[in-house]
Amino acid sequence: MVSRTRLGPLTYFALAYRNLLRNRRRTTITLLTMIFGIATLTLLSALNDGWLSQMKTNFILSFTGHVQIHAKGFEVSQNLRDQISNPEEITRFMESYPEIFGWTERIRTSGLASVSGSSAGVQIMATDPEQETWVTSMDQSVKSGRWLQPGMTNDLLLGLTIAQNLGAELGDRVVLMTQRPSGEMISEVFYLRGILETGAPQIDRTLALITLKGAQQWLQMQQAVTDIVIRADEHHQTDKLYRLFAQQLSENTYEIMPWQELDPMVRQWLEFSDAYGLVILIVVIVLVLTEILNTMLISLHERQKELGVMIAIGTKPYQLFFMLLLEAVLLILIGAILGYLVAGLIVYALADSGIDLTGYSNAFEFFYMDPVIHPQLTQNSAIKILLASLTATLLAGIYPAWKATRLSLSQALRIQ
Amino acid sequence: MSEENATTIIRTSDLHKCYWVGTMPYPALHGINLEIKAGEFVVLAGRSGSGKSTLLNIVGSLESADRGKVEVLNQDILGMTGDQRTQFRLDHIGFVFQAYNLIRVLSARENVAYVCQLQGKSRQESMEIANHWLHQVEIEHLGYRRPDQLSGGQQQRVAVARALATEPKIILADEPTANLDSITGRHLVELMHSLNERLGTTFLISSHDPDVKRAASRLIKLSDGCIVNDWDESPNPPASLAITCPLRNLPFTERMRLFFKHRRNRQTEHNKTSRRS
Questions:
Q1: Residue of B98, B130, B96 whose CA lies nearest to B112
Q2: Measured in whole angstroms, how far is the alpha carbon of residue B223 from the centre of its chain?
Q3: Which of B89, B97, B122 sits opposite A314 (nearest CB)?
Q4: Distance CA B112, CA B115 (A)
Q5: Rounded Cα–Cα distance for residues A380 and B31 (Å)
């Protein structure tokens, strides 16, 4: 009967560690490659995470909030008949949820704006001037003029591009025309009090912002609104809030939409960036894998005779397998730790100042991007890189280790 | 089991081995019949290519044979699986190689202790055993040195200590003095001889070193894969040997038999590989 042979973990470790030091120059070069690869990967992930996070924040805070509640069907129909007639029923609970940073009610409809003979289609949005500041940073996007004031029901703010297209200037009379929920066409005179530049072209090109009270009177909607917009305390609480409202509100009456659903283009862009990050991850990991594989195979080739002797004197193939695998694991662990450390230091150094790409600001005008990127390493990315590195190690370590177990004893012992 | 069987430690019958280079057969052993008793100090002599190392490797279960039977300690080692052979070597056979073949990254002491650890002994116990055997081969004071910090003779002593550390019944040594100068070689032979006398360990050594041959209790001469002479306690073999095995001039039919056997084996291996893939 075959009894089991044993080697203590210390022996495995000593053999692996000393074998790595056997050819210090080669091990150093391999380690440097791995450190460079993992540091680059970590840094790229941090940059990617950084600008994605900024983009997400800009998108959410410029207009949409984290979660929106509409009457059932409004997002598709954009018809004022699909309204929340008693928003108080929903908003009275808002204060009791610590996850909610702020909320506001809005009315959205499309219409026509005319100034001294010029006219253009606009997206009319009415909001509570005070509540809106708790949800979005629109009040900080006022390029000229001032933000809406409560009680000033004829105040109007226009997006920069639409104002330029209409040739409207501050103080101008602007006639807005739209339909009431009943379908009746109406128009009203508003006064341009401010011009907004949100950085999002689709908003700046169409937005006409008025007060909620003014709109409710004008459209004869009493207390009714079309949107309730909620800002979460943190981005990651979006799902929790979504589930909360989904549980409490009837899906036959309301539609609850997280920010990802409100602008599919932004969502697709974020998903694309994730996929792009994954491609970079795979490329770098394949490079690291090839380097380790190369090192391990050369090392295996050089040590064929010694490995043969080890088998001859009683080492089992599985013991050789673990011995060689441990070498690869040690290499990647040291490489990963040092790589993380290098990347961590760079991320730490750049976290506040960021990388200023203002020179390329044209490229950042769309999709709510900031020209200054602040690298930010998320837990998710760090785990992803670690798992990818470990997978690479296993793949790069398993093959040479398996090859060692298939060594022809007689041939190995004949090597001079 | 008869008394004779009880003391026979190695037995080979009709042992054949042939190496192949492409489709060309190179016979290495041809019908070796051999019995070695426990405690013998046997030297396999013969020219390079005579089959000494091949016989040693087969007896040591490092290689398989094409035909025949090998019993070591009454166990048919050719019928064992790879793992069983490894365990058998660990438990019963010690090896001393021509090029010392110590593990480069381990110290002399760790090299000796390594095989004890393979046997499942604790690190501390293994180190104590290693110290004991290094003392036996008179280099205990060099135990901390790595192989590249030892002379050839010192490395070979470590190899002997490693071979003895598992307390095997048999030690197989392949040209153990070939890389040593004559004085160091002579010391090593004396050491192995004294260990054989004191411990009763069976030594089977392949060598053409006259000092090793002189120390032999039994000298077996191989030529072209056949035993051509076998002397007990005979340090002075006759000047001429009767070469009875002209393997290089194998008959055509025998060569063809070997050729087709090789083809069959290759086909079988190919089929197995295809099935796997």
A1: B130
A2: 17
A3: B89
A4: 6
A5: 68
3-state secondary structure B44-70: EECCCCCCHHHHHHHHCCCCCCCEEEE
| A296's tokens | 């391990």
The total of other beta-carbon atoms located within 10 Å of residue B24's CB is: 11
Which residues, at least 6 apart from A204, have a Cβ–Cβ distance to it below 8 Å? A159, A160, A161, A162, A196, A197, A198
Cα(A400)–Cα(A46) distance, integer angstroms: 33
Closest A-chain CA to B64: A410
Phi, psi torsion values for A137, nearest 5 degrees: -105, 25
Which residues on adjacent β-strands are paired with residue B45?
B221
Residue B80 near residue B89, CB atoms below 8 Å? no
Which residues does chain A have with pLDDT short of 70?
A: 1-6, 360-369, 416
- What mean pLDDT value characterizes chain B? 83
Between positions 307 and 346 of A, the ones with CB within 8 A of B are 309-317, 319
Say yes or no to pLDDT of B275 above 80. no
Q: Are A368 and A266 in contact (CB under 8 A)?
A: yes
Q: Which of A14, A19, A316 sits opposite B83 (nearest CB)?
A: A316
Query: What is the ipTM score, two decimals?
Result: 0.79
Task: Provide, as residue numbers in chain A, all residues whose Cβ is less than 8 Å from the Cβ of B97.
Answer: 309, 413
> Inter-chain contact A6–B120, Cβ cutoff 8 Å?
yes
Would the CB atoms of A8 and B117 count as touching at under 8 Å? yes
How close A316 comes to chain B (CA, Å)? 7
Residues in a beta bridge with A258 = A67
Q: Is A314 in Cβ contact with B115 (below 8 Å)?
A: yes
